[in-house]
Design brief:
Two copies of one chain form a homodimer. With 324 residues, the first copy, chain A, is an alpha/beta fold. Chain A has two domains: 213 residues, Rossmann fold (3-Layer(aba) Sandwich), CATH 3.40.50.1100; 91 residues, Rossmann fold (3-Layer(aba) Sandwich), CATH 3.40.50. Helix content of chain A is 45%, strand content 14%. Chain A is built from 13 helices and ten strands. In chain A, the strands form two sheets. Chain A has a six-stranded mixed sheet with strand order 1-2-10-7-8-9, with helices on both faces. A four-stranded parallel sheet of chain A has the order 5-4-3-6, with helices on both faces. In chain A, α4 runs parallel beside α5, α7 crosses α8 and α11 crosses α12. The radius of gyration of chain A is 19 Å and the shape is globular.
């Protein structure tokens, strides 16, 4: 019995139908090792630039009327915060996003743009959580967590339904893993409908907690995480996510930062996509042959495109990938 | 009576159905003047990185068996050359692309990648045409012209059908104009089905021959063309294209190079799309309010994404657009 059912995901799909972008699956025109046919599911083109919009909108739109009136809160300065702000805006609901005092100006601006109220609290995630809980206590806001949540996972799973429809020949789906929400949703959808399709997770080498957890069979918390892929700097995946990954994910592999950065450059040049480092890890695993797939039809999920312009500039100076 | 009928375009669509990417229409999340709702038709995500694939594949696949056996030829070092090479490859047909002796290495490589034979001839377009004609004479290749051709225009028109389906609320479609193939196809499709939708062409200020032609009612050939938008450096649109534009295009506007470059940066940051300068002119016209549209639902066509990495790096250093 899976934590998230196909029915949950299909309901999320009905809810997202008219608001989420049905992101394209694009043939990768560049060279790919081992003769794989590589397709890209470009969630970087989703609203607010990442898959996070799917889960956030599904979670918020399902709140009972009374909770909707009070508003929602989250504590993420990244893609989830933007997604919550945008989803709440579209639904006409008040949103509060708690950010660290040293949050980057552009991320504050992108979240504020959707009309969210920004609350600054300390520098650590504990500071932010404490402030969020105090605000919940005071105002009765509904908390929208980033990944360890059924409604969030069901929302992300809608990308899995689309993959099967858009590329029915798919033999393996490769997915970035941070907190585990995206791969939990996608793998639940895929294993329910097409158990023959392999699902492979990818983490940066400097933060491979899900890989360690799947391999040891116990939920591992990393003491130290260091990677360029800022969206995947989670030290521990969620409980629901771990339960799902154990049942639905075939393998998790890790890629070094250097390969991630080269892949950001390759995706700009070969696929005309602006991708953030976290969003590029699944493609990197295929291009640098970390998955061992051979001659198969592979879909790599690009999870997000919110990259700092200076970082993207640097990646465009990387030498072109020469894979033969 | 229009040169290209809706039926021609619908036939092209059937021909392209399983090979061309149905490129997404994406909501532009950034700020837009005059309260327009802006949507992007991202042909930069088409095979080979531009809309040119649609026309090239439609033209080549319609050749009689005997001509297909002999192969095809074109004389373009740019997006059309790549598109012809890729379409011929997919159809198992020999392709020859005539390029100038000083063609940029990366463009040669991108064309050769699809198995095309590259012939180098002189430095001018007359040199290339002469070499192409000699090769046609010798080998009986079928010539695939870049824009002044019914099959090419019908192929490009399939993007117009998609726009109407993907954004039925559209009130105005804004399209880059080079030789005029793309806007001829799109405007033919749109005026046949939805004559109430405005179609607006956009050229760079340094090469506004179509604007001059539409305004004077005679086909203007420019003596001098100078713009950063290398794909739109045509000095004269085609005859079929002029006949179509006169009947189906409401207005043509021009944008300066500086606004084009800022828009390339904005599209990377706000829409996570890698776009070449030529591909950005329609979006630039909306963002910089050259179209006069107000409060409308607008679709801007992004025609291509094959930008030199150094150019893209420079555009990412442009100050962020601040439109209020």
């Amino acid at each position: 019995m899976l934590p998230i059912s196909l029915h949950d995901i299909q309901q999320a799909r009905a809810c997202l139908e008219t608001v989420a972008v049905r992101t394209p699956i694009l043939p990768y025109g560049g060279t790919v090792r081992r003769n794989n046919s590589l397709w890209l599911k470009a969630e970087s083109l989703q609203r607010t630039g990442s898959f996070k919009f799917r889960g956030a909108y599904n979670a918020i739109s399902g709140l009972p009327e009374e909770e909707r009136r009070r508003g929602v809160i989250t504590y993420s300065s990244g893609n989830h915060g933007q997604a919550v702000a945008c989803a709440a805006h579209l639904l006409g609901i008040r949103a509060v996003v708690v950010m660290p005092e040293d949050a980057i100006a552009v991320k504050v601006e992108l979240t504020r743009r959707w009309g969210a109220t920004i609350e600054f609290a300390g520098l650590t995630s504990l500071d932010r959580q404490a402030r969020a809980l105090a605000l919940v206590e005071e105002h009765g806001y509904a908390v929208i967590p980033p990944f360890d949540d059924r409604r969030i996972i069901a929302g992300q799973g809608t990308a899995g339904l689309e993959i099967l429809e858009q590329q029915p020949d798919v033999e393996a789906v490769v997915v970035p893993v941070g907190g585990g929400g995206l791969i939990s949703g996608i793998s639940s959808a895929i294993k329910a409908l097409r158990p023959d399709v392999r699902v492979i997770g990818v983490e940066p080498e400097g933060g491979a907690d899900a890989k360690a957890s799947l391999e040891t069979g116990t939920l591992v918390t990393l003491g130290h995480v260091e990677t360029i892929a800022d969206g995947l700097r989670t030290s521990r995946i969620g409980d629901l996510n771990f339960a799902t990954i154990r049942q639905c994910v075939d393998e998790i592999v890790a890629v070094p930062d250097e390969e991630i950065l080269q892949t950001v450059g390759a995706l700009a040049n070969e696929a005309r996509l602006v991708v953030e480092p976290s969003g590029a890890v699944a493609t990197a695993a295929v291009l640098f042959d970390r998955t061992g797939l051979s001659g198969q039809t592979v879909v790599a999920v690009i999870s997000g495109g919110n990259v700092d312009p200076a970082r993207l500039r640097a990646c465009l100076s990387e030498p072109a990938l020469a894979l033969t």
